Amino acid sequence: MGSRRSRLELIFDILLAIQNKGGRIKPTHLMYKSNLSHKLLNTYLEELIHKELVLVEEIQVKKKQSATKTVVITEKGLGFLAEFRRMREFTDAFGL
Amino acid sequence: MFRLFSTPGWFNGWDIVFDIVGLIVAFLIAAYSWRIYHINKENRFAYLSLAFILLAVGFLFKTFTSSILYYTPIRDVAAEVLRPVAGKGLSLSLIYYRAAFFLQMVTTLGAWLLMFFVSQKPRSRLKKFYEVSQIALFIYLLLLVSIVSNFRYGVFYMTSIVLLSLIVLNYYKNYLNTNKNKRALAVMVSFLFILIGNIAFAFVFFSQGFYALGEILTLVGFLILLITYQKITKR
């Protein structure tokens, strides 16, 4: 079993899961890809939306009466991903 | 004239340039590590930043003392600035040279010691219970070595060699643990060059050329660090 992920690592995993799906993903898929519980994912999504790293779009499906939610990564979110990768590379290089 | 280093005449001034490069590189890495600490609040990044700041300060003191030793105009300016405090005997006062060398050595050794602790894997680091007493012991030994080194400079380089050897070993382990990461290899190689440079410094008593060789090897080490830093931050 892997070690517990830090808060920043969790945010990275969420944003990476969205990026890997072409920049938009359904919340349910995101939950499985990022390996988080529904409650925890919602908590982090709220934070990510507040920090404008992601946004939630509602798309009206023709056949269904309800709207489908999609989580979309923003430019700021992509910037965070790049910065986190740099930080991780620095950490690996200096053995921290 | 009081001299800590036996610098060949043709090399006068070049070591100052090399030390300034090292100073800049150390500051850049310290700043980036501090920035990461600011983001994730993990102490190890703050410690690494402090280590490189100490290294930069060590270079600053070395540059200062070298400038005063090599260049009469700078020595005259320094004498004028310090004359109200030192009085008539400033030109012969060894205490200022010794103080500057002491500060250079204690900061540099402090940097190597901190880097040694930081480069260890967390499970190998000192446990909190023993931390304070053992760190206090290390600081005492550092201060003792720095004082003694004022009279026997070889002691400073021998201590640096021991600490740097341990740092290189830690970074070699890190290179293996990170699945032979190129950046980890570069960091290990850079500290290896700095280590070999310090070994060269230890043989200055044998030939002045070893001082120039040591400076060049140390410069190469810091240039590798600079290239690694640029490759990481520009991705």
The value of Rg of chain A in angstroms is 15 Å
Shape label of chain A: elongated
Portion of residues within helices of chain A? 55-70%
Name the shape of chain B in a single word: globular
Report the end-to-end length of chain B measured between terminal Cα atoms.
50 Å
DSSP strand content of chain A: 15-25%
The average pLDDT value of chain A, as a whole number, equals: 88
Number of strands of chain B: 0
Total number of beta strands of chain A: 3
Describe what you observe in this structure.
- The complex is a heterodimer of chains A (96) and B (235).
- In chain A, strand 2 and strand 3 form a beta hairpin.
- In chain A, helix 1 packs across helix 4.
- The longest helix of chain A has 19 residues.
- Chain A has a 3-stranded antiparallel beta sheet with strand order 1-3-2.
- In chain A, 28% of the residues are buried.
- Chain A is built from 4 helices and 3 strands, in the order αβααββα.
- The model of chain A has no long low-confidence stretch (mean pLDDT 88).
- Chain A is an alpha+beta fold.
- In chain B, helix 4 runs parallel beside helix 6, helix 5 packs antiparallel against helix 6 and helix 6 runs antiparallel to helix 7.
- The mean pLDDT of chain B is 83.
- Chain B has 235 residues and is an all-alpha fold.
- Classes of the chains: A alpha+beta (96), B mainly alpha (235).
- At the A-B interface, helix 4 of A face helix 1, helix 2, helix 6, helix 7 and helix 8 of B.
Spell out the key features of this protein:
heterodimer; A: 96 residues; alpha+beta; three-stranded antiparallel β-sheet; 4 helices; elongated; B: 235 residues; mainly alpha; 8 helices; 0% strand; globular
Provide a quick synopsis of the model.
The complex is a heterodimer of chains A (96) and B (235). With 96 residues, chain A is α+β, with helices and mostly antiparallel strands.
Describe the protein's topology:
The complex is a heterodimer of chains A (96) and B (235).
Chain A (H helix, E strand, L loop, with lengths): L6 H14 L3 E2 L1 H7 L4 H13 L3 E7 L6 E7 L1 H19 L3
Antiparallel strand pairs in A: 1-3, 2-3
Helix pairs in contact in A: 1-4
Chain B lengths: L13 H27 L2 H28 L1 H15 L7 H25 L9 H22 L3 H25 L4 H21 L6 H25 L2
